[in-house]
Write a structure and sequence with these properties.
The chain is of the alpha+beta class and about 900 residues long. Among the domains are: about 5-60, Spasmolytic Protein, domain 1 (Irregular); about 75-295, glycosyl hydrolase (family 31) (Immunoglobulin-like, Sandwich), CATH 2.60.40; about 655-880, Golgi alpha-mannosidase II (Immunoglobulin-like). It is built from 16 helices and 52 strands. Strands 4, 5, 6, 7, 13, 14, 16, 17, 20 and 29 form a ten-stranded mixed sheet that branches. Helix 4 links the parallel strand 21 (about 310) and strand 22 (about 340). It is globular. The relative contact order is 0.08. It is found in: Endomembrane system. It holds the Pfam family Glyco_hydro_31_2nd.
């Protein structure tokens, strides 16, 4: 029998917790001990060393731990202002004992809580958020305040469900450590990125710590990765009410941990800034996302060509190898839109250069691609070489003159780290020992207003040499091959804070710049998570690896240096679904995997899945994996997947437009659309494209079936149109190597186009409509269409489609864009279960149709309808009574 001794500075009753799940960690740092715990005036009681108890804190807060109390309260135009004070400091240095609390009743569904130093101005995230000075007249939430100890309780007005309650644990507010907690409505969460994890975060029986600090590292579980998105959606599941959702967003860019525990509860631990917390009441997950995007901004509309298939690799090595890849793709008649090059095409890895020996003729090659309707994207790493002879490298010379580089602590000199620039291919690959002594770089400070002109000038100058169509921003966490800098970091508390979150490497300078480095706006300590995100330009395509809340206004994203494994392919789905929640809707993963060598089976399956990524790029660093390198059979399967994507591009483009103007995600989990169906909770091996298309990929090697779930609705197999006869159950679907299971939901109309070799060449091709009838025999859809490249979307066409009572109506609500013929050639109607005798198009009989009564598919062809010639057009089919 093992007896555990409970040691506590206070009475046993104050340390006694009703359950272990109610313990809140008083020593989140590593290596807690009874001595350290008692020094903080906390409770020490180790748990049994079973697997279920391994993360239960041994050091936890007593119920009477010193915290804040309300000193004054007054109403304001935006809600309420409180002054709270703490009678004594506790265990963190430089605690702030006098705080102001502002409660903003911003909208009916949005509540904002700000807690900040009453005396001294502290760093705040420079994100442009809505400024609301007038309290909402009515809200979906009720807020109540406990005065002693200070706590805030927020409930959903309609159900009484608690969506925020800070009374469960004390507030700690010090200069470099802020800690506060809240209960969760359930143990089920979505979001909290960027981390490699399953889509659903379920803390029913687990304790979980998620670190937030942008980091260059291949995606693996339990590590901080490239982006910071402290936003989550919490599921509200009760026996008495329908399933609702609410969300939380902590607007804070400092290094932080977020602890989750099975009470259930959440704890934020951040190293600086202020508490600036938003609550979104939904009540649907879609509503929560829209309310979140109202704060951080909506996604940018990408150029049309960027929706196509992109091809890239690290180490083409020479322009001859690059030409060979382009030729074999052409010989295979494989459709693709965008060719990329990585750092091996640069001269000694110097930004805004190309190797005029190994890649001699690259400018002409790019112009040749563009003449064929293709596009070109090159890479830029935000590390500018500082070792080139003075006057020979304008990016550094001009940047030094403008003083736009991040500086050393208390110095006007740039802080110097090490990234790729300055190393030639031969030195990097053959003489690694020499590489260790060169490659020193400075880092642009994009909070410096002079950096915009600097960036525009050097990018514009390079564009005159190579007319690139987009920019790939890599390594912008920022990544650094030495910890901190060439000379290390300081001994200040910025570089050695009293609390370090559970970040990879154990210190904030690990593989990045010293936290003490100075930007124009603030220290790198405050700005690391947002400092080097893409600056806004025109509509041209920008791809960024690092991201923060709001980055989707400017950039697309990919999920970093994954590996060629089926496991990595599976995790790509949850990542892409999560980034759609975060507002970076144009997101993808490196198809077939970046690291390791792929196999033909894996690459084939991944190309099928990748055809349904918003951003579709095949990129790697191993052996060649462009589609044309595989067997003829694999090529044909991959080609069909890409052609399916290209045929759906009008639907994709409309989804992008709706994301920009209406805050709708491009892809979403089944649970967000079918929230009352418990079977959909956490499904992350299937997903919905928009609300209409269900994708069920095969993610397991050497298998020919997929276990897929069909929520209760009408579903049609694509492309056959055959109706699914089983719903509300999991079913095994045939999934041989040449098939990805795609189903269209009844009630939706999908605009499509006959595909071509690339999207620019196919823009003039005829359109197709898929009409998938609901159980009520109706359906709706829409289509947005413009030139695909304009900065503003003032000249465009917009169509609303509706099918009711055997009549399809095409309503051209806007017809400003007339540079495209936009002709409708074919309509396929799924679910027509009565024999069709006649078809009437705009009041005239149309004889070109075919009805397969067994599959219930009506095909109306040879329409040749000019879609913008008439405001209203109708297609009617007459069935036998």
């Amino acid at each position: 029998m093992i007896v555990f001794l409970s040691i506590c500075f206070t009475s046993a009753q104050q340390c006694d917790q009703p359950e272990k799940n109610a313990r809140f960690n008083c020593h989140p740092e590593s290596s807690p001990s009874s001595e350290k715990c008692l020094a903080r005036r906390c409770c020490w009681q180790p748990m049994n060393s079973t697997l279920s108890d391994e993360n239960v804190p041994s050091c936890y807060y007593p119920r009477d731990f010193p915290t804040y109390r309300v000193i004054s309260s007054e109403p304001t135009s935006f809600g309420q202002r409180l002054i709270i004070m703490k009678p004594q400091s506790t265990y963190m240095p430089n605690e702030i004992l006098n705080l102001t609390v502002d409660l903003f009743y911003e909208t009916t569904q949005r509540f904002r809580l700000r807690i900040y130093d009453s005396t001294n101005k502290r760093y705040e995230v420079p994100l442009q958020v809505p400024v609301v000075q007038t309290k909402a007249n009515a809200t979906d939430y009720d807020v109540s305040i406990t005065q002693m100890p200070f706590a805030i309780l927020v409930k959903r007005r309609s159900t009484g469900v608690i969506i925020f309650d800070s009374s469960v644990s004390p507030l700690i507010y010090a200069d470099q450590f802020i800690r506060f907690s809240s209960v969760l409505s359930s143990p089920y969460l979505y979001g909290l990125g960027e981390h490699r994890q399953a889509l659903l975060i379920n803390v029913t029986n687990q304790w979980k710590t998620l670190p937030f600090w942008t980091r260059d590292t291949p995606p693996v579980e339990n590590n901080n990765l490239y982006g910071v998105h402290p936003f989550h959606i919490n599921v509200e599941r009760t026996n008495e009410t329908p399933v609702n959702f609410h969300g939380q967003f902590l607007l804070n860019s400092n290094a932080m941990d977020i602890d989750l525990q099975p009470l259930p509860a959440i704890t934020y631990l951040t190293t600086g800034g202020i508490i600036d917390l938003y609550l979104f009441t939904g009540p649907t997950a879609t509503d929560v996302i829209q309310q979140y995007w109202d704060v951080i901004g909506k996604p940018t509309l990408p150029p049309y060509w960027s929706l196509g298939f992109h091809l890239c690799r690290y180490d083409y090595h020479t322009i001859d190898n690059l030409r060979n890849v382009i030729k074999r793709m052409s010989d295979a008649q494989f459709p693709y839109d965008v060719q990329w090059t990585d750092i091996d095409a640069m001269s000694s890895h110097l930004d805004f250069t190309y190797d005029e020996v190994l890649f001699n003729g690259l400018p002409d090659l790019v112009r040749s691609l563009r003449s064929e309707g293709k596009h070109y994207v090159n890479i830029i790493d935000p590390g500018i070489s500082s070792t080139q002879p003075a006057g020979t490298y304008p990016p550094y010379d001009d940047g030094l003159r403008r003083e736009i580089f991040v500086k050393k602590f208390n110095s006007s000199d740039p802080i110097i780290g090490k990234v790729w620039p300055g190393t030639s291919y031969e030195i990097f690959t053959l003489l690694n020992a020499i590489f260790k002594s060169i490659g020193w770089t400075a880092f642009p400070d994009f909070t410096n207003e002079n950096s915009v002109e600097w960036w525009t000038n050097i990018a514009g100058t390079f564009h005159e040499t190579i007319p690139f169509d987009g920019i790939w921003l890599d390594m912008n966490e920022p990544s650094n091959f030495v910890d901190g800098s060439q000379q290390g970091c300081t001994n200040t508390t910025l570089d050695n804070p009293p609390f370090v979150p559970h970040v990879l490497g154990g210190k904030l300078s690990a593989s990045t710049v010293c936290p003490s480095a100075q930007h124009a706006l603030s220290s790198h300590y405050n700005l690391h998570n947002i400092a080097l995100k893409a600056i806004r330009g025109k509509r041209p395509f920008i791809l960024s690896r690092s991201s923060f809340a709001g980055s989707g206004q400017y950039t697309a994203h990919w999920t970093g240096d994954n590996k060629s494994t089926f496991k990595d392919m599976y995790f790509s789905i949850s990542a892409i679904l999560s980034f759609n929640m975060f507002g970076l809707t144009n997101v993808g993963a490196d198809i077939c995997g970046f690291g390791l060598d792929t196999t033909e089976e894996l690459c084939t399956r991944w190309m099928q899945l990748g055809a349904f990524y918003p951003f579709m790029r095949n990129h790697n660093a191993g052996k060649d994996q462009d589609p044309a390198v595989f067997s003829w059979t694999a090529q044909q399967i991959m080609k069909q997947a890409v052609l399916m994507r290209y045929s759906l591009t009008p639907f994709w483009y409309t989804l992008h437009y709706q994301a920009t103007v209406s805050s709708k995600t491009l892809i979403q989990p089944l649970h967000f659309e079918f929230s009352d169906d418990e079977n959909t909770l956490g499904i992350d091996q299937q997903f919905l494209l928009g609300r209409a298309i269900l994708v069920s990929p095969n993610l397991i090697s050497n298998t020919t079936t997929v276990n897929a779930y069909f929520p209760r609705d009408i579903w049609y197999q694509y492309p056959s149109g055959e109706k699914v006869e089983f719903v509300g159950v999991f079913a095994n679907l045939d999934a041989p190597l040449d098939k990805i299971n795609v189903h269209i939901r009844g009630g939706f109309i999908i605009p499509m186009q006959i595909p071509g070799d690339n999207l620019m060449l196919s823009r003039g091709n005829p359109f197709i409509l898929i009409v998938a009838l609901s159980s009520f025999k109706n359906a709706t859809g829409n289509l947005f269409w413009d030139d695909g490249d304009s900065i503003e979307t003032k000249i465009y066409n917009y169509f609303e489609f509706s099918s009711v009572e055997n009549t399809l109506t095409i309503n051209a609500t806007v017809t400003n864009y007339r540079d495209s013929p936009m002709r409708l050639e074919l309509v396929r109607i799924f679910g027509v279960n009565q024999s069709v005798t006649d078809v009437i198009v705009n009041g005239k009989e149309h004889i070109d149709f075919f009805h397969n009564i067994s599959d219930q598919v009506l095909v109306i062809y040879a329409l040749d309808l000019a879609m913008i010639e008439q405001t209203i057009q109708t297609i009617r089919w007459i069935t036998m009574k």
